[in-house]
Amino acid sequence: MPLNTRMRLIPLLLCWMSGSALAAGLPPLLVSPDLVRDGRGASTSRPAAALQPAPAKPVPATQPVPAVRAPSASGATGGSGAAVTPAPSPGPVADRAPVPQPVATPDPSLAAGDTLIKAQRILGTRSVELVADGDAELQRDDTVLTADRVTYREPVDEAVAEGNVVLRAGQDTITGPKATLVIGESTGEFETPSYTLTRDRTPTVAGETNRKVSGSGNADVLRLEGENQYRLENATWSTCQATDPDWYIKARELELDYDREVGTAHGGSIVFQDVPIFWMPWAEFPLSGQRQSGLLPPTFGSSNKTGADLAVPYYWNIAPNYDATITPRLMSRRGMQLGGEFRYLGETYRGESRVEWMAKDNVTGEERTLASIQHQQRITPNLYGSLDFNSVSDDSYFEDLSSRISLASQVHLLRQGSLSYSSGSWWSASALVQSYQTLNPDPDSITATPYRRVPQLLFNAYRPDLPGGLVFDLDAEYVRFAHPDKIYAEADRLTAYPQMSLPLQGAAWFLTPKAGFHASSYEIDRPAADAGKPDSISRNVPILSIDSGLFFERDTSWFGTNFVQTLEPRLFYLRVPERDQRDIPLFDTTLYTQSFAEIFSENRYSGGDRIGDANDLTAAVTTRLIDPETGAERLRALVGQRYYFSDQEVGLFEGQELIQAGGRTDVLAGLGGKLTQHVSVDSYLQYDTGEGQTERFNATMRYQPAYAKALNVSYRYGRNVIGYGGELGLEDLDVSGQWPIGRGWYGVGRVTRSLKENRVTEAIGGLEYDGGCWAFRVAVHRFAIERDDVSQAIYVQLELNDLAGIGSNPLSLLTRSVPGYGKINASSADRVFGVD
């Protein structure tokens, strides 16, 4: 993101819209020279008359006020004028102590464009000059100007406000001892003003809420230089609301151009705790979320792989729908790297490209590069295309140059291009070409490269509206599997799977019988090691299934709380005859991990190279506790198992242990929900009844009483799961959380410990401080890439609200690693909607 201060000075031209409401059809008023201290305004060649004192309730100057002759020495008036007691002359403005100004609001009865003046005394000549003295107030539209004295000169459309000047327009306030404003030209000047300016911030991130951003500060001079143009001298600005802000921008000259929504600071710096921390001799920045070219705040950090790490990004706003970021990065151990990112967005397309280049790594002595391209496009209203290409120069690129575990542990980099077409009614088709770059940073642990699909063609037809309630579904595929290593077989595979079902349902039950026919054909190019096996194979498999379920519910009470409890039994029968598939190589197929989704599926294998034989029944039951008033699910429990009536015959490979008739899968059970308003649990169990032992067990509990207060404990066990270092078996304990520790400080962290290996595999520890309008974060991240290869990174960031973050940002790490983590300086609206 570009440097974004969200500085938005009020368009003060609302205060000074041109108009002649004060002069139209009104008799002249003569002003006493004694009441005009600077001698400007009323002509001294004419007889002067004292103005009648104002009543207790101020009278709008737009109302006709008859001229009054000057009183005689005895105080009597001549003609029809009423006798008055002359008001005492006010003292000079400079001699008076400041008086707190009441909060003024626009008069809702004032017509648009009209001007209303109120004061204790109103003197002057209409169409020439009016002097409003004593709690003076000038209103126009939603703008209110108050001061000890306001002089309005109609011929030049000028207002001079003196003494305790307060300008309020909309949500904004500017104060100062004096202001001179020319309304029609939108020009003028405030002397030594203080200001608070509030604007609605337009969301810049998907899911972000609308919120208000307030900026306040002061200046020696604030000048209006035309509509939407402002210039401040020796000015400050901050999102802190205190009179003594913790941080602020300080600039010798500040220009605000609201036509372009761009601000310019000359001779500026960022001051934190009265210490300048970032110098900006010249900088442009957006005023209201508008992107703007310029240097972004530098990021810095440290890790054992890169050493000290400093990056200084430059943001280039090429066009409203194109931008680029160029990032020189200096690593004390590795050397200099240059990175770049290009983003674009159109009505029918979007995408981004990223490159990184290091001419010579000081450790390896080699050139190192990264390239990444993602593109999506709607070619026609029904035709879509996408491209996803990723490449690095060597197997250890992410391990050496990234401090993120998600990148450092990447093995396969996708390279894929696709086209998809939707008819908009009942059929769709797609085509793709796909391959991977496989990384093997550890020569002792080689990962096989997945097959390439060159190409894959897919076709789907779905008709849910056939006579008699029948539903027709067709899945068809052609794919060419290729591999860079010629010791592996290659093949063309053609499959078609037409299906017909009849969904039946009532208020408390459903029944769905289904019949399908899976047809496959292979043309295989075998390596020499497979000589003698057939090159052409056809496989035809009928598939029959019946899915059924019931729904019951009752009112119940648990611990004094009323609930609706449901009972939902479900039966799923599957019949698939056995077909000999031993001569078909495995291109994209593996055995599914047992789960609730798997025991209700038609095939225990992923991909299309094995169709598992079946004559089995799945039985499961679910019960839920539901809040009768809100409909929210408070607790959910389920248990299920699949039972086999025939021996399994189809395996992935020779010698695979298969389930025999009378056997059954492991028992699967789950329990989860919100036990209380602040405590939630989730758990999953896979239990082998034959061996009498647990195969898998996961349990998580979270306590979250408020925003940015969360404690999590989770346990993971897998008897046959591949764990760290490729060893069989996994048993982890994970503890994480975020909690206030007092006086604005928060602790945050996570520890994952392998109980099987008796070592910590990942640890995060950090401290955060919420300064109200700024936040400070420091975090240390340590994670094991391999048993003897540990990466460490340090993050230090100072974030100035709605301005910039300086340093390396740990927010993505903390959000990803600590469930329930909350950004401590997020707005109240974003805290509700969860935007970080």
TrEMBL record:
It comes from the Bacteria. Residues 367-745 form the LptD C-terminal domain. Residues 1-23 form the signal peptide. It is found in: Cell outer membrane. Keywords: Cell outer membrane, Membrane, Signal. One of its GO terms (biological process) is lipopolysaccharide transport. Gene3D superfamilies: Lipopolysaccharide (LPS) transport protein A like domain. Pfam families: LptD, LptD_N. One of its GO terms (cellular component) is cell outer membrane. Residues 39-95 are annotated as: Disordered. Together with LptE, is involved in the assembly of lipopolysaccharide (LPS) at the surface of the outer membrane. Component of the lipopolysaccharide transport and assembly complex. Interacts with LptE and LptA. This is LPS-assembly protein LptD. It comes from Thauera propionica. The lineage of its organism: Bacteria, Pseudomonadati, Pseudomonadota, Betaproteobacteria, Rhodocyclales. The gene is lptD.
